[in-house]
Design goal:
This protein has 224 residues and is α/β, with parallel strands linked by helices. Helices cover 34% and strands 21% of the residues. It folds into 2 domains: 9-187, Vaccinia Virus protein VP39 (Rossmann fold), CATH 3.40.50; 188-224, no CATH class. Strands 3-2-1-4-5-7-6 form a 7-stranded mixed sheet, with helices on both faces. α1 (9-19) crosses α6 (189-197) and α6 (189-197) crosses α7 (199-207).
Length: 224
């Protein structure tokens, strides 16, 4: 399919901006959503960087070559056409953030668990978008055998990670899916926010009523 649900987009962008990564790996890039939005809200939004010279590194891994179009080379520094399961065998690069947008369910369960561990060895943060529970059967799409869903996942599968945030969503026909943020260290996105924008701006906006701190903490905490 090369694309996925949209109900989680604003939440994911908020997470990405607060992580403020200098390097991203987009696994299963497909249409290129996270490369495009990463450039827009990390470079265009803050810096008005239309110079065609990006300041951050964003790479992509995509197994299905037909999904990769000429515009991908504009938004991504490198596009690797290969199986994500094999990527880290040949590439030792480390990233501030790895995004797996509707990818893990295309692995067999044990293979998916191993891939998550591989990602955590090569990143500071791992963001997973994933269907939850049954009713997500999917067969071959666009002549792409890799579109088949091979495993079923539940939020409980991710609660074993001590440093994680789980945010639940429903799609347009009310099926459950989640955004999972995992890190090897403590997840403290409030501090990341203050580090990025400055303590003065944070306090000023809070005192003036422009920033509802309770809402911010709730939004970033997600549903555990």
């Amino acid at each position: 399919m090369g694309t996925s649900n949209w109900q989680n987009i604003s939440y994911c962008i908020e997470l990405i901006r607060r992580i403020n990564p200098n390097s991203i790996l987009d696994v299963g890039a497909g249409f290129g959503r996270w490369g495009i939005l990463g450039r827009e809200f990390l470079e265009i939004w803050d810096d008005s960087n239309y110079s065609d010279k990006w300041n951050r590194k964003i790479d992509a891994v995509e197994i299905f070559e037909d999904y990769v179009k000429p515009y991908h080379s504009y938004f991504y520094d490198n596009v690797y056409i290969e199986n994500a399961a094999d990527f880290f065998k040949n590439n030792e690069s480390k990233y501030d953030l790895i995004v797996c947008g509707d990818v893990i369910e295309h692995f067999e369960k044990e293979e998916g668990k191993k891939f998550i561990e591989d990602c955590l060895k090569h990143s500071r943060y791992l963001m997973i978008n994933i269907p939850i529970g049954k009713n997500w059967e999917q067969e071959i799409i666009n002549n792409n055998n890799f579109e088949v869903h091979k495993s079923i996942w539940y939020n409980s599968d991710f609660r074993k990670y001590p440093n994680r945030k789980i945010k639940k969503f429903r799609d347009y026909i009310s099926r459950k899916f989640s955004v999972i943020l995992i890190s090897n260290g403590k997840i403290d996105l409030i501090s990341e926010y203050k580090k990025k924008y400055g303590k003065y701006i944070f306090v000023k906006n809070y005192l003036s009523g422009k920033l509802n701190l309770g809402w911010l903490v709730k939004m970033l905490s997600g549903n555990k």
